[in-house]
């Protein structure tokens, strides 16, 4: 298969990481596309959960917000938000949390709260929403984001959600028993934490990507695994599924816009 | 026992300057009409609570009504940041509201604790999270049985909560369907609750026995306001007006365009205008 964009490669590579038996707490944006591509290709029985309370949802189009009616219409059940966070997330029912990030560091700590100082911010971002507890209560965390030196930084401005802290066994020291970030998929590469230091390490680069490109768009000195693979290109099925999903989404959202 | 009132009277009787107020709705059933009525009535010095303050909180903040904000995600869903909130927090315009920021888990637990009549909520959370360092209302307790350290936050107990719902019956019982969010908890946690509904029906005889129904004696006032959630949606009645959320990003980008929009669409408008705003969004909802 030839002719695909880095964004498409990112979404498809992220979708491949999900297993058919996973129960996945889905963040909005890039994670939502990846999770639904997984559901529409190799993982038809995957359980997708959005924090608005929809469990086992199967949207035909991607939602604009985490509470679109489509998510409720297609869900196995819709529960209240307190029940979602107490019984299902805190109760340990969710195997994977799939998050995006405004700022990310090499240990998978995420900032979506402020740029600059908390009390006197340069940019006030929306905040964490469900992320702080998603990051600690899900079995493991997958992260997906486009690479940029502003987004992938040496030091994040605020610890919205905890990844591996300063690395090593920092999670265990805080009494967190879940695995934390185990995968980062960007538009250029696939990264996994080093088993000991927990620093994200490039294990696979997408077709045609160079090490220099990966470094130029990352704010910390990039570590590469001893053997860096090439990410398999999207298959015909994967690419068609993603493009059809995006086309349906675009048409649906345009169609629902208010008449002028 | 509840009473059926005009929205104007329901708001006038139930919200005072300085109150702790929740206008809830988790992306769905957001009580826009009720909040606009509070704006028209010029309420101020409010402590505004909501898990997901979005466009309507941006409007109240921009109008200078907020003394304090308690929230867990302040954004325009699917669009981006809240520009009036940013102007208030970053530049102090028109004032600098105090911020008490939580996670969703904390807020959801705090509403539930409020509904349960407890002073605080206990949950497993905030581990390694920066909010615990900047919000003095995030503390911890040790489980007396296992020794596990758990997060504790004060319960949410508003003076008054406003929610929108699909329907009330003639007795004043209220039915909430679809993404129910924290509507039930917001009502039960509050001293007073005001509900706007799409319609008033004879009875709930066709309603499933386990549906989310709030009995009439839990609600202070009900106002029938068709379209009252717009640009949010009412499951089964009309769709979310995504275009309005996108437009808001431009309107709120500038103080003058914001003020002009508020004058034309809120200050010079009435609850009756909401029905028109959703007429092209009905159909396949």
Mean pLDDT of chain A: 94
Low-confidence stretches of chain B: none
How much beta of chain A, percentage-wise? 15-25%
What's the CATH superfamily of the largest domain in chain B, by name? Glutaconate Coenzyme A-transferase
Averaged pLDDT of chain B: 97
Helix-strand topology string of chain B: EHEHEHEHEHEHEEEEHEEEHHH
Task: List the SSEs and their pairings.
The complex is a heterodimer of chains A (260) and B (285).
Chain A: H1 6-16, E1 23-26, H2 30-40, E2 47-50, E3 54-55, H3 69-73, E4 77-78, H4 81-90, E5 96-99, E6 103-104, E7 110-111, E8 114-116, E9 121-124, H5 131-137, E10 140-144, H6 170-173, E11 181-185, E12 189-193, E13 200-206, H7 211-216, E14 223-231, H8 236-255
Helix pairs in contact in A: 1-2, 2-8
Chain B: E1 3-4, H1 7-14, E2 20-23, H2 32-40, E3 46-50, H3 55-62, E4 66-71, H4 83-91, E5 98-101, H5 104-115, E6 120-123, H6 131-134, E7 139-142, E8 149-154, E9 160-169, E10 174-176, H7 183-189, E11 192-201, E12 212-214, E13 221-224, H8 242-251, H9 255-267, H10 273-277
Parallel strand pairs in B: 1-13, 2-3, 2-9, 3-4, 4-5, 9-11, 11-13
Antiparallel strand pairs in B: 6-8, 7-8, 9-10, 10-12
Helix pairs in contact in B: 1-2, 3-4, 5-7
Overview of the structural elements:
The complex is a heterodimer of chains A (260) and B (285). In chain A, helix 6 links the parallel strand 10 (140-144) and strand 11 (181-185). Chain A has 260 residues and is of the alpha/beta class. Chain A contains eight helices and 14 strands. The relative contact order of chain A is 0.16. The longest helix of chain A has 20 residues, at 236-255. Chain A has helices at 6-16, 30-40, 69-73, 81-90, 131-137, 170-173, 211-216, 236-255; strands at residues 23-26, 47-50, 54-55, 77-78, 96-99, 103-104, 110-111, 114-116, 121-124, 140-144, 181-185, 189-193, 200-206, 223-231. Chain A has one domain (6-255): 3-Layer(aba) Sandwich (Glutaconate Coenzyme A-transferase). Chain A is globular. In chain A, strands 4-3-2-1-5-10-11-12-13-14 form a ten-stranded mixed β-sheet, with helices on both faces. Chain A has a two-stranded antiparallel ribbon with strand order 6-7. In chain A, strands 8-9 form a two-stranded antiparallel sheet. Chain B is α/β, with parallel strands linked by helices. Chain B has two domains: 3-102 and 157-277, Glutaconate Coenzyme A-transferase (3-Layer(aba) Sandwich), CATH 3.40.1080; 118-154, no CATH class. Helices cover 30% and strands 23% of the residues of chain B. Chain B has helices at residues 7-14, 32-40, 55-62, 83-91, 104-115, 131-134, 183-189, 242-251, 255-267, 273-277, and strands at 3-4, 20-23, 46-50, 66-71, 98-101, 120-123, 139-142, 149-154, 160-169, 174-176, 192-201, 212-214, 221-224. In chain B, the strands form two sheets. In chain B, strands 1, 2, 3, 4, 5, 9, 10, 11, 12 and 13 form a ten-stranded mixed β-sheet that branches. The longest helix of chain B has 13 residues, at 255-267. The mean pLDDT of chain B is 97. Chains A and B meet through helix 3, helix 4, strand 9 and helix 5 of A and helix 4, helix 5 and helix 8 of B.
């Amino acid at each position: 298969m030839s002719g695909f964009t880095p964004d498409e490669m990112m979404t498809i590579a992220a979708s491949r990481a999900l297993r058919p038996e996973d129960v996945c707490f889905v963040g909005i944006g890039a994670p939502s596309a990846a999770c639904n591509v997984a559901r529409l290709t190799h993982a038809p029985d995957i359980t997708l959960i959005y924090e608005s309370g929809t469990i086992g949802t199967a949207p035909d189009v991607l939602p604009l917000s985490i509470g679109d009616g489509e998510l409720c219409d297609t869900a196995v059940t819709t529960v209240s938000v307190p029940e979602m966070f107490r019984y299902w997330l805190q109760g340990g029912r969710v195997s994977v949390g799939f998050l995006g990030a405004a700022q990310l560091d090499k240990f998978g700590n995420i900032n979506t709260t402020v740029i600059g100082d908390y009390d006197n911010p340069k940019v006030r971002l929306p905040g964490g929403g469900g992320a702080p507890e998603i990051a600690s209560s899900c079995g493991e965390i997958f992260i997906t984001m486009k690479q940029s030196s502003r987004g992938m930084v040496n030091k994040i401005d605020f610890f919205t959600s905890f990844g591996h802290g300063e690395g090593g066994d920092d999670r265990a020291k805080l009494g967190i028993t879940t695995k934390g970030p185990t995968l980062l998929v960007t538009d250029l590469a696939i990264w996994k934490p080093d088993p000991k230091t927990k620093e994200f390490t490039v294990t696979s680069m997408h077709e045609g990507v160079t090490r220099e490109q990966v470094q130029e768009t990352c704010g910390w000195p990039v570590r590469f695994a001893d053997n860096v693979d090439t990410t398999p290109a999207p298959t015909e099925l994967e690419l068609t599924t993603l493009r059809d999903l995006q086309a349906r989404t675009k048409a649906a959202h345009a169609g629902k816009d208010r008449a002028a | 026992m509840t009473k059926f009132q005009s929205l104007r009277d329901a708001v006038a009787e139930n919200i005072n300057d300085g109150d702790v107020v929740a206008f809830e709705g988790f992306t769905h059933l957001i009580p826009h009409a009720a909040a606009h009525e509070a704006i028209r009535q010029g309420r101020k010095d409010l402590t505004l609570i909501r898990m997901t303050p979005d466009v309507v909180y941006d409007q109240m903040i921009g109008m200078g009504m907020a003394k304090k904000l308690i929230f867990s995600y302040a954004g325009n869903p699917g669009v981006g940041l809240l520009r009036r909130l940013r102007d208030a927090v970053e530049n102090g315009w028109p004032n600098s509201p105090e911020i008490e920021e939580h996670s969703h888990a904390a807020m959801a637990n705090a509403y539930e604790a409020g509904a349960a009549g407890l002073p605080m909520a206990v949950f497993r959370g905030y581990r390694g999270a920066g909010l615990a360092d900047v919000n003095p209302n995030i503390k911890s307790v040790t489980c007396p049985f296992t020794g596990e350290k758990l997060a504790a936050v004060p319960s949410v107990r508003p003076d008054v909560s406003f929610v929108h719902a699909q329907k009330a019956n003639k007795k004043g019982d209220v039915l909430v369907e679809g993404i129910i969010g924290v509507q039930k908890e917001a009502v039960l946690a509050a001293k007073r609750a005001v509900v706007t509904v799409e319609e008033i029906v004879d009875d709930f005889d066709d309603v499933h026995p386990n549906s989310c129904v709030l009995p009439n004696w839990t609600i202070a006032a009900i106002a029938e306001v068709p379209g009252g959630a717009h640009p949010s949606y009412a499951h089964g009645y009309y769709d979310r007006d995504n275009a309005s959320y996108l437009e808001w990003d431009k309107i709120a980008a500038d103080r003058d365009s914001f003020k002009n929009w508020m004058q034309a669409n809120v200050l010079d408008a009435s609850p009756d205008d909401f029905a028109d705003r959703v007429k092209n969004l009905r159909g396949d909802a």
